[in-house]
From TrEMBL:
EC number: 3.4.21.89
Biased composition (Polar residues): 1-15
Gene Ontology CC terms: plasma membrane
Alphabetized Pfam families for the sequence: Peptidase_S26
Residues covered by region (Disordered): 1-23
Residue stretches making up the Peptidase S26 domain: 29-184
GO MF term set: serine-type endopeptidase activity; signal peptidase activity
Main subcellular location: membrane
UniProt KW Hydrolase keyword: yes
Cell location: Cell membrane; Membrane
The name this protein goes by in its record: Signal peptidase I
Top-level taxonomy: Bacteria, Bacillati, Bacillota, Bacilli, Bacillales
Known catalytic reactions: Cleavage of hydrophobic, N-terminal signal or leader sequences from secreted and periplasmic proteins
Length: 192
């Protein structure tokens, strides 16, 4: 014969509710930990590995169009210095709150000369199939100092770059990273 004990049933209901509360609390804690780890990883990746930038202006046409979004590799220059033809994002020296994007034409020790609508590096004319039109100005000779790079936009006649004293030679520590690919708009997705 079984006996009915209302006190035991109440205890069972209470312990079931407590278990549900403990289960919910444990699940919320696990979700919270996962979100925190994801947030910290995103911050680390953004700070040290990759960043998203938007092209603002026409200075890199035809290579990059205004309003395209890029993925920039921030780690690459921990491994080596910028190289010729890298497309780099850097802090604008006259206003470090602004970022510029240009092509590396000269590295330390290079002598860059712009004359007769052409660019010469160390006396040799550059083959520049990426520029919008020939360089219209003759800017003289630039010798790239140690720890800096000389940059030009691909749309030379509409680019504020190392020819301008407000930009000048870009110090290595102002370089944010190398542009790797365009991801937006999606129909323009491509390597750079």
């Amino acid at each position: 014969m079984s006996e009915f004990n209302p006190q035991n049933e109440t205890n069972q209901d209470t312990s079931g509710q407590e278990e549900k509360k403990k289960g919910w609390g444990k699940e919320a804690w696990e979700w919270g930990k996962s979100l925190l780890v994801a947030f910290l990883l995103a911050l680390l990746i953004r700070q040290f590995a990759f960043a998203i930038f938007m092209v603002d202006g026409q200075s890199m046409v035809p290579t990059l169009e205004d309003k395209e979004r890029l993925v920039v590799n921030k780690m690459v220059y921990y491994l080596h210095k910028p190289e010729h033809n890298d497309i780099v994002v850097f802090k604008y020296p006259a206003d470090p709150t602004k970022d510029f994007i240009k092509r590396v034409i000269g590295v330390p020790g290079d002598k860059i000369e712009i004359r007769d609508y052409k660019v010469f590096r160390n006396g040799e004319e550059l083959s520049e199939n990426y520029i919008a039109e020939p360089t219209a100005t003759n800017n003289g000779v630039f010798t790239v100092p140690d720890g800096t790079i000389f940059v030009l936009g691909d749309n030379r006649n509409y680019s504020k770059d190392s020819r301008d004293p407000q930009v000048g030679y870009v110090p290595y520590d102002a370089v944010i990273g190398r542009a790797e690919f365009v991801w937006w708009p999606f129909d323009q997705f491509r390597d750079i």
